[in-house]
Amino acid sequence: MSALEDKNQTKQRVCRACQHDLDFIFADLGEQPIANDLIEEKSKLGYEPRYPLRVACCRSCRLVQIADDLPSDRLFREDYVYQSSISSSFVEHARKHVEDLIKGHELGASHHIVEIASNDGYLLQFFKKHGIPVTGIEPAASVAKIARERHGIPTLERFFGAEESRRLVHEIGQADIILANNVLAHVPDLFDFLIGVKSLLKKNGVAIFEFPHLLKLLEGAQFDTIYHEHYSYLSLLALEPMFNRVGLKVTDVKEISVHGGSLRLSVRHQDENYSVHDRIQKLRDQEAAAGLHEDAPYLAFAEKIKNIIQKLKSLLEHEQAKGTLIAAYGAPAKGNTLLNSAGIKSNLISFTVDKAPSKCGRFLPGSGVPILDPSIISVLKPDIILILPWNIKDEIIDTFSFVADWGGRFLIPIPEPQFVEPHVKSQRQAS
């Protein structure tokens, strides 16, 4: 299929949840390459296909979503490069979550845990260490292979939905706990996915959904979280009616700091006698007070995007004019949205580094910034390191605190560009 023919598949004119016309497009980030499609050869730079990246809010159900879709099999291919285990802080987050679940639900060898979008086994490995049976569902062959070979996690390479769920019930049985961490945003057909969850969940089971909270995205100007893989940007306001429609109910919620501020929803069968925690009403009130049911916060968010882009590019150009060597850390999808929205290329950022061997030696799409091994930092001694995965900035600043030896500084782009001195965090920890 040609790039032009592929681009013609992107149009989405109605809401994916309620079929209402999408007539409120509040942010337009231009045409961008697919954020995780790293370029393998320098000669191919500049030829990557680009697609519209616009964000809409449905004025009927208030689901925020990409206005122009790409097919999921175009986004999540066999060579998908994202590995959850690369971030030690994220793995620790998963470990604590598992420990809490085992204790809170008294889980043991008689239970069955299923994770949808299980990636490289970063989370299920901790259930396995406790002797609790697990199954991973992961459509990307590259990371599914890692889960099997590195952690011994039974992992099925499949896209999840209602039809697939029926097959799974026949093959592996229903699950006591279904985990769906950071996957709902990646789902093009939300109702098909939720019907599948209901089918796979045991009568007294619980499904746990973790995802970045739309409210935090808007308040923190986290526009770099927007890319083609993220079909939706989620709130309790938009999700609760969807769960109810398929016979599920949200019974509890926990606000967590991961990914710039996320929600962890506990969901059960609607006809079961489980009380709804008062934290749910508190969150409803919080979202209402923030005006998620109105247009104003979305329009304000669009203005924040313009200000961040202008400030970041001006700052980098000012530093470059002084002869400053500017590098970046990371090759995350969000970093590519940031750089491409601001028109920042390799003439401003000399290189970036990443811990994932699968990314090193490639180039960021759109910007053309080369991805190198992190060891190059101590060799080239950049004056500024722009942290693209700002959500794990503390982990990165800890790891590269030695840049203080030559006066290096870190630059955090979100919620607004600001410098962080390496020694600042060390002093705070020591106090």
Structural features, described:
With 431 residues, the protein is of the alpha/beta class. The chain has 2 domains: 84-296, Vaccinia Virus protein VP39 (Rossmann fold); 297-430, Rossmann fold, CATH 3.40.50. Helix content is 35%, strand content 20%. It is built from 15 helices and 17 strands. The protein has helices spanning 3-7, 72-75, 88-105, 124-129, 141-151, 162-172, 190-200, 214-219, 236-245, 278-289, 296-321, 333-342, 376-380, 393-399, 422-430; strands spanning 25-32, 51-57, 64-66, 113-116, 134-137, 155-156, 175-181, 201-212, 232-233, 248-256, 262-269, 326-329, 351-353, 371-372, 384-387, 409-412, 418-420. The chain is globular and about 65 Å long. The model is unreliable at 1-10 and 424-431 (pLDDT under 50).
